[in-house]
Amino acid sequence: MNIKTIIFDLGGVLIDWNPEYLYLDIFEGDRVKMNAFFEQVCTMDWNENQDAGYPLSKATEDRIALFPEYETLIKIYYGRWEEMLGEAITGSVQILKKLINDPKFRVVALTNWSAETFPVALKRFDFLHWFEGIVVSGTEKTRKPYPEIYQITLDRFNIAPSETLFIDDNLRNIKGAEAIGINGIHFSTPEKLIIDLNNFKIKL
Q1: Bridging pattern class, strands 85-88 and 106-111
Q2: pLDDT at 147 over 80
Q3: Given Cys at both, which of 26, 34, 137, 184 links 143, Cβ 3.0 to 4.6 Å?
Q4: Which of the 8 DSSP states describes residue 11?
């Protein structure tokens, strides 16, 4: 196996993102109420629809129409979205830097992210400008794990799936990549990533 291109996911691999950074304080530390809100109102499925290009303002209106009693809390989701962004995952960024500095590899990113909020991340995290390019789901109007977005990435950078390694913290997304022939690493920690890269004969 000769890996020539490495594709990084962003959220959960290089950038810490969690809605509870914002909402746990709003719910005064009550995780039961907060989790019920995420399970019933501002769900992950709902958020992922915006990752595929649905407008944030329309998504907010839609949710308020369904749950008018939660209007204020729903508006906060994208109104204060930046407060959900944590810090860079330092160990992963160090790995990224080593790979980018290695002439054997091309390094790109593929992220499920709203095109409307992604500029916030670009301003905050300098390392996002290190990549050869970034495929943003919200711009492409599709998202992982649908095969279209992996094919867009392969075509855009003229890369072969068998020579490509994809790193993502969501196993569903890894399986989506593997279904079209891309090699995958299911990310958990930077330390484990080093071991997994070594299994692909990639030594840091």
Answers
A1: unpaired
A2: yes
A3: 137
A4: B
Tell me the CA end-to-end span of the chain in Å, nearest whole number. 17
State the pTM of this model. Answer: 0.95
Query: What per-residue confidence (pLDDT) applies to 129?
Result: 98
User: How far apart, in whole angstroms, are the C-alpha atoms of residue 132 and residue 127?
Assistant: 11
Q: Cα(181)–Cα(176) distance, rounded to whole angstroms?
A: 9
CA distance to 59, 63, 65, 153, per residue, from 159 (Å) = 35, 40, 44, 8
C-alpha–C-alpha distance, residues 76 and 201, integer Å: 45
Q: Which residue has the tokens 């590899």?
A: 105
Separation CA 199–CA 192 (nearest Å): 11
Dist. CA 198–CA 204, nearest whole Å: 8
Of the candidates 66, 58, 60, 73, which has an alpha carbon nearest to the alpha carbon of residue 22? 73
Residue 142's pLDDT is what?
A: 97
CB atoms within 10 A of CB 144: 27
pLDDT given at position 64: 98
